[in-house]
Design a protein that fits this description.
Layout lengths: L6 H5 L12 H8 L15 E3 L5 E3 L3 H15 L3 H10 L22 H4 L4 H17 L2 H21 L6 E4 L5 E5 L5 E5 L10 E9 L7 E6 L5 E5 L8 E5 L7 E4 L10 E7 L4 E5 L2 E6 L14 E4 L11 E9 L5 H7 L15 E3 L8 E2 L9 E5 L16 H6 L13 H19 L2 H18 L4 H8 L10 H12 L2 H8 L4 H8 L10 H18 L2 H14 L33 H18 L2 H17 L34 H10 L7 E4 L4 E4 L5 E5 L4 E6 L7 E7 L2 E9 L8 E4 L2 E2 L8 E9 L4 E5 L4 E6 L2 E9 L2 E5 L8 E2 L16 E2 L7 E3 L2 E5 L12 E3 L3 E4 L2 E6 L9 H6 L7 H17 L5 H13 L5 H17 L5 H19 L3 H18 L3 H19 L1
Helix pairs in contact: 2-17, 2-19, 4-7, 6-7, 6-10, 6-20, 7-10, 10-11, 10-13, 11-13, 11-14, 13-14, 13-16, 15-17, 16-17, 16-18, 17-18, 18-19, 22-23, 22-27, 23-27, 24-25, 24-27, 25-26, 26-27
C-alpha cells in the first residue's frame, strides 16, 4: 500500500526517548486509556468474543501443537481423576483404573498430603469442553458427560452418611473396605472398653496404603489418655501404645516387620495388667513385660474408634474382617487359632466385648454379635458437609481450618478455594459445551455452599484469609462465580463474588501504588481479571482502575522476553530482569492468566497495547511451553521456564498434574479464542492475531478465512464469503515499523497504517473479497531495564533464542550493519530450509516457540566495541556510561529513521550530549559523524529520492516556497542524471549547488539542517 508521509514523521528530529521503540506503549498506552466517569453505571461491553465453535484453526504451528493435546485427551482415561472424588464421597472406586502417579498434585499420594487434589480434574474438564467446542468430536463430549455424571453421584453421596463398601475377605464371605481417601472410620459406642482390666483385640486387616501412624484402632478421649494399634510407626513397624499422660507416658510394643500392603494380616494385642503382647498372623511379634496399663486405668473413654487417630494422623485405608474384643488376655494358642479360623469357630468364641464379623453389604452399621449391642457405625472424620452443594476430592476440613489460619502451611491447607475454582470452572465449561444440566446444578450448588460458608464470616476474617500466601489463594474464582451468576441470576452469587475482594490490594492498585514486590504472582493475577468482570456487574470504578493500573505494573516492568512474569513464583521489585535470570522464572500459569486479563481489558478499552502483549505471550511463552512430541500419559508442558544462560525446558514437572500443566491443556485447546472479536452492535470485525483460521460470523452470515503460515511467513490473506456492511479493523503490531501494506482485491487500501494501532477499512463486503496484508519483520534487540547490556532478540513477534549450552551470557554485536529503520537483521544469516532459524557469530538462533529440550539463551550480552554505521567503522571506541548504556544505544533507540538525514541529525545531537558529559572528545565526535555520512544504507540514487521526498512534504506543509522546491528539485535531478551517466564529479558539483541553494533559500532552520546534512553526507560518500 501507499504509506502517507506526515509532516510530523518526516520532520521529526529524533529526540531521545527513554526506552525501547515499542515496549513503552504497553504501560503508557494502558495507563492513558480513557476511563468511564466515576460512579457511572456499567456500560454494555464494547466488544464481544466469538465462541470457540465459531473459529476453527487452519494448518500451522497452532494446529500442530493443539493436535498433540487433542491426542492426549482422546486417549487419557478421565476416570483416573474420579477415584479421588469417589473415595472422598465414600463410593467404591472405579475398578480397573490405573491410579494417578505418586508425587503429583492430584492423587492421594500427591505433594503436601494430596491437599490440592481435584484441581486437575477441573483443568481436564475445561480442556475437554474446549476441545469439544473447537472440533465437534463426540469423544470429548462423551468423556465430559461421564465426568459430570460421576461428580454428580459423588456430591449426592457426600450428603449421606458413608455406606459400607465390600471386598473379598480373608475368611469366607466378604469384608468391609475403607476406601483410601474416604476419611471413613468405625465408631463404637462411647464407653465400650471402659473398666477392662484385661483386653484382647484381634482382627484381620488388609492395608491398602503404607501410611505411617494410621490406626487400626484407637481408644481414648484426646491426646492425654489413649490406647492404639498403628499399622506402621515412624520406622514402618506395627506399634501398640497406651498412655494416661500424653505421648511421653506411653507404654509400647513394637513389631519386628512391617505389615504388607494389599495383603491380609491377622493382628492381635493382649493386655493383662502385667505385660502386653503383639501378635501378627498368630505369632508373637513383640512383647513388653512391663506394660502395666489397661483401659480400666485410663478412665471413661468416649472415642472408641476403628481406623481413626486421636491425633491428626491419616485414617486407616483398607479392609477389616472378624474384629473382636475380649475382656481377658487370650493365650498364645488361642490367638494362633484366631489366625486360622473365624473367632466364632475358635475356643475363645466371639469377643465378649465387641464382635464384628464385617460381612455387611449395605447400610452404614457393622453389627455386633457380642450380645452387648456395641455395633460400629461408619462415620467421616469431618462429619457431613456444611451444605449439600459441597463437592471436592477431599474433606471440608481445609476450608474450615483456613478460617482460623494466620500463616501459610500447605501441608495442612493448600489453596482450597483455588481448587474449588478449577472444579467450578470445569463444570461451567462442561455446561457451555454440552448443555448438560447436571453440570450447571453442580456449579450452582458449589456457589451456594461457598456463600453459606463465607457469609457467616466477618469481612476482617475474609480479608485475612485471602492475604495468606498459598493457603488463601483462590485463582479465578470470581470470574467463575460471576459466570454462574449469569446463569442463575441469584443475588447471593453476586454477593459471593464480592466476598473475595482483597481490599488492601485493590485499593493500592486503584491508587496506582505498586505493592507487588514479594507477592506470589499467580495467586494475584487472576484477581484482576475478576475485578474487570466485577466492574461489568457493579459499575464500581475502583475495580476497573485497579485492573488497568496493575497491568501496567507487570507489563513491561516485570515482563520477560517471552511475555511471562514471576521469579521463583513471586514478583521482585519492578524493572529487575537481568538480576533474576534463573531456573525458576516465568511460571507458565502467569502467562495464561495475563492473557485472560489482557483480553478482558481490551474488551473495555480496545487499547492495542493489550493485544500486542497478547501476541507476544501467546506466540512465545504459551507455544514454547508445550513440547513438540506426543505422550499418552503427560501433557508435556512446562511449569517454570528457566531463562538463565544454557537453560533447558522441563516438560515433565510433578508427574503431569501441576497447575501449569493444567493451564497448558487449556491454552492448547483455545488458541483461537482471541483471533477475532466483534463490536457489540456488529458494526466492526477486529482481527487481533494473524493465525490460519476460519471465522463463521453467523450474525452477519459471513465467513472469513485467514490463510497464512504466520509467523513463518510475513503476510496473511483474509478471504470473505458472504456479504455485508462492516468495518474491518486490522491490528498493526507495534513491531511493524518496516511497513504494513494492505490491499483489498489487489488495490492499496485507503488507510494509514501506524504501528500500535488498528487500521480500519469500512465497506460493503462482497462474496470473494480478499484482503492481503504484508508486514515485514525486523530484528530488534530489547534491553533489560536493570542492565541495558543484557538484551534479548525479537524478530517481528517471535523471540529468538541462541541454542548453546554454555552457562555464561553470550556476547553479540549487532549495530554495525543495522538498517535505518533499526532492523538488525543484516547481522544474522538465515539457515536454509529452516524458517525463523539464523546464525549469529557462529551460534544458531531459533524461535522459542519450538518446544525442544535444547539448551538455549534467551538473553545475551550486547557488545559493541566501536562505533560503526552501515558497515563503515569510525575508528572511535563506543563509549559507555556507568549505567552500561552506550553512545550507539542512544543513537539507535530513536529508530526507525525515515531517511539518512534523520540519522545524521540524531548522531549530531547524541554526540553533542556525550561531548558535554566529557565522555567523548570533539575530534571523535567528528570522526563518528563522518562515518555516518559515508555509511551506505541505500544507493546514492535512493538518497537523492529521500531528499526529494523531504522537500515535497515540506512544500505540502507550507514550510518552503514552490520556487525553492523547484530549484532544489532541479539540482537533485541533475545530480541523479550525472550518477546515471557514471560522472561522479558532476553529481558532486550539482549537490554542492543544492547545498548552497538550501542554505540560502530555506528559512526553516530544522528543515534546512535536514536537507543540507543529507546532501553533504551524499557528497562525502561519493568522494570516498
Amino acid at each position: 500500500m501507499t504509506h502517507h508521509v506526515s509532516r510530523r514523521s518526516i520532520l521529526r528530529l529524533g529526540a531521545a526517548t527513554a526506552g525501547l521503540p515499542w515496549l513503552p506503549q504497553f504501560a503508557a498506552g494502558a495507563a492513558n486509556a480513557e476511563a468511564p466517569a466515576a460512579g457511572a453505571a456499567p456500560a454494555a461491553a464494547a466488544l464481544h468474543p466469538f465462541k470457540l465453535s465459531d473459529v476453527s484453526l487452519g494448518q500451522g504451528v497452532f494446529a500442530r501443537k493443539r493436535e498433540l493435546i487433542l491426542n492426549f485427551a482422546r486417549g487419557y482415561d478421565e476416570r483416573r481423576y474420579l477415584n479421588v472424588f469417589r473415595a472422598n464421597a465414600g463410593l467404591q472406586p472405579v475398578a480397573g483404573v490405573v491410579p494417578l502417579p505418586a508425587g503429583g498434585w492430584e492423587g492421594l499420594d500427591g505433594e503436601a498430603n494430596g491437599n490440592l487434589r481435584g484441581h486437575f480434574t477441573g483443568h481436564h474438564m475445561s480442556m475437554l469442553a474446549q476441545a469439544y467446542a473447537g472440533t465437534g468430536e463426540e469423544v470429548f463430549g462423551t468423556k465430559l458427560r461421564n465426568l459430570v455424571t460421576s461428580l454428580h453421584e459423588c456430591r449426592d453421596a457426600l450428603s449421606r452418611e458413608p455406606g459400607i463398601l465390600t471386598t473379598g475377605g480373608r475368611l469366607p464371605g466378604t469384608a468391609v473396605d475403607i476406601a483410601r481417601g474416604s476419611y471413613v472410620y468405625g465408631q463404637l459406642p462411647a464407653g465400650s472398653v471402659d473398666g477392662l482390666t484385661a483386653l484382647t483385640f484381634a482382627a484381620w486387616v488388609r492395608p491398602t496404603a503404607a501410611a505411617n501412624w494410621a490406626r487400626i484402632f484407637d481408644f481414648g478421649n484426646d491426646t492425654r489418655a489413649y490406647a492404639f494399634l498403628a499399622q506402621r510407626d515412624g520406622a514402618g513397624l506395627p506399634r501398640f501404645a497406651i498412655t494416661r499422660n500424653f505421648a511421653g507416658g506411653e507404654q509400647t510394643i513394637v513389631g519386628t516387620a512391617p505389615l504388607p500392603v494389599n495383603e491380609w494380616s491377622h493382628v492381635a494385642v493382649t493386655l493383662d495388667g502385667r505385660a502386653g503382647t503383639l501378635y501378627v498372623n498368630g505369632k508373637q511379634a513383640g512383647r513388653n513385660a512391663a506394660l502395666t496399663l489397661t483401659p480400666a486405668l485410663l478412665g471413661s473413654l468416649a472415642n472408641v474408634w476403628l481406623g481413626r487417630s486421636q491425633y491428626n494422623d491419616p485414617t486407616f485405608a483398607g479392609a477389616y474382617q472378624d474384629v473382636n474384643i475380649w475382656s481377658s488376655a487370650l493365650s498364645a494358642a488361642q490367638v494362633a487359632e484366631l489366625a486360622a479360623a473365624p473367632a466364632l469357630n475358635s475356643s475363645a468364641g466371639n469377643g465378649d466385648v465387641v464382635a464384628l464379623a464385617c460381612g455387611e453389604s449395605s447400610g452404614s452399621v457393622l453389627a455386633d454379635a457380642s450380645g452387648k449391642g456395641r455395633s460400629a457405625t461408619l462415620r467421616r472424620t469431618w462429619g457431613p458437609p456444611s451444605h449439600p452443594g459441597f463437592l471436592a476430592a477431599y474433606p471440608e476440613t481445609q476450608f474450615i481450618e483456613l478460617e482460623s489460619r494466620t500463616t501459610p502451611d500447605y501441608l495442612r491447607v493448600w489453596a482450597p478455594y483455588y481448587t474449588a475454582h478449577k472444579i467450578l470452572k470445569g463444570l461451567l465449561d462442561a455446561y457451555t459445551a454440552t448443555a448438560e444440566t447436571k453440570a450447571l446444578d453442580l456449579a450452582a450448588g458449589l456457589c451456594d455452599w461457598m456463600h453459606s460458608r463465607l457469609s457467616k464470616l466477618t469481612p476482617a476474617v475474609r480479608q485475612r484469609m485471602w492475604g495468606i500466601f498459598s493457603s488463601g489463594e483462590y485463582g479465578g474464582i470470581v470470574e467463575a462465580i460471576l459466570e454462574t451468576h449469569g446463569h442463575t441470576g441469584k443475588p447471593e452469587h453476586l454477593e459471593l463474588a464480592r466476598y473475595f475482594d482483597l481490599d488492601s490490594l485493590i485499593d493500592a492498585c486503584a491508587q496506582n501504588k505498586d505493592v507487588l514486590a514479594g507477592l506470589h504472582a499467580n495467586q494475584h493475577i487472576p484477581i484482576f481479571t475478576g475485578l474487570v468482570l466485577m466492574y461489568n456487574s457493579t459499575g464500581e470504578e475502583r475495580y476497573l482502575t485497579a485492573a488497568r493500573n496493575f497491568w501496567g505494573m507487570v507489563v513491561p516492568t516485570r515482563m520477560f522476553s517471552i511475555g511471562g512474569t514471576s521469579q521463583g513464583e513471586f514478583w521482585k521489585e519492578r524493572d529487575r530482569i537481568a538480576a533474576f535470570l534463573n531456573a525458576t522464572d516465568a511460571e507458565s500459569c502467569c502467562a495464561y492468566n495475563m492473557l485472560k486479563l489482557s483480553r478482558e481489558l481490551f474488551f473495555k478499552d480496545q487499547n492495542p497495547a493489550y493485544m500486542d502483549y497478547y501476541e507476544r505471550a501467546l506466540f512465545n511463552q504459551v507455544l514454547g511451553s508445550k513440547q513438540d512430541r506426543e505422550s499418552a500419559e503427560l501433557p508435556l508442558a512446562t511449569y517454570f521456564i528457566g531463562l538463565q544462560p544454557g537453560a533447558v525446558r522441563d516438560f515433565t514437572p510433578k508427574q503431569g498434574t501441576t497447575c501449569c500443566e493444567g493451564t497448558g491443556l487449556e491454552s492448547a485447546t483455545k488458541y483461537q479464542d482471541s483471533v477475532y472479536f466483534t463490536a457489540a452492535d456488529g458494526s466492526a470485525l477486529y482481527v487481533n492475531l494473524y493465525m490460519p483460521s476460519t471465522l463463521r460470523w453467523a450474525a452477519k452470515n459471513v465467513t472469513v478465512t485467514q490463510k497464512t503460515s504466520f509467523p513463518f511467513e510475513q503476510r496473511t490473506t483474509l478471504q470473505v464469503a458472504g456479504s455485508g456492511q462492516f468495518e474491518l479493523r486490522l491490528r498493526v503490531p507495534a513491531w511493524a515499523t518496516a511497513g504494513f501494506a494492505v490491499r483489498v482485491n489487489g488495490a492499496p487500501a485507503e488507510a494509514t497504517a501506524t504501528p500500535g494501532t488498528y487500521l480500519r477499512i469500512a465497506r460493503a463486503w462482497k462474496d470473494g473479497d480478499a484482503v492481503e496484508v504484508e508486514m515485514p519483520f525486523t530484528l530488534r534487540a530489547e534491553r533489560a531495564q536493570d542492565d541495558p547490556s543484557v538484551q534479548n532478540l525479537m524478530y517481528g513477534p517471535v523471540h529468538l533464542v541462541a541454542r548453546d549450552s554454555r552457562s555464561e551470557l553470550l556476547a553479540f554485536g549487532l549495530y554495525g550493519t543495522a538498517k535505518l529503520n533499526g532492523d538488525l537483521a543484516p547481522a544474522v544469516q538465515p539457515v536454509p530450509g529452516k524458517p525463523l532459524h539464523f546464525t549469529l557469530a557462529g551460534v544458531e538462533l531459533a524461535p522459542f516457540l519450538e518446544g525442544t529440550e535444547d539448551a538455549f539463551h534467551s538473553y545475551f550480552r550486547r557488545t559493541e566495541p566501536s562505533v560503526v554505521f552501515g558497515g563503515t567503522d569510525s575508528g572511535v571506541a563506543n563509549p559507555a556510561r556507568t549505567n552500561k548504556t552506550t553512545l550507539l544505544d542512544d543513537v539507535w533507540q530513536s529508530a526507525p529513521f525515515a531517511n539518512k538525514p534523520e540519522l545524521l541529525l540524531r548522531v549530531t545531537r547524541v554526540a553533542d550530549v556525550w561531548v558535554s558529559e566529557r565522555l567523548l572528545s570533539r575530534a571523535d565526535a567528528d570522526r563518528l559523524y563522518g562515518a555516518a555520512q559515508r555509511a551506505a544504507f541505500a544507493s546514492p540514487e535512493r538518497e537523492i529520492d529521500d531528499l526529494q521526498r523531504i522537500a515535497a512534504a515540506a512544500l505540502a506543509a507550507g514550510r518552503i516556497t514552490a520556487d525553492t522546491s523547484d530549484m532544489l528539485g532541479a539540482r537533485l535531478k541533475s545530480a541523479g542524471k550525472a550518477l546515471d551517466q557514471k560522472t561522479t564529479a558532476k553529481a558532486v558539483h550539482y549537490l554542492g549547488q543544492y547545498i548552497d541553494g538550501a542554505t540560502r533559500d530555506v528559512t526553516d532552520s530544522s528543515l534546512r539542517d535536514l536537507l543540507v546534512s543529507g546532501a553533504q553526507a551524499l557528497v562525502a560518500r561519493l568522494n570516498a
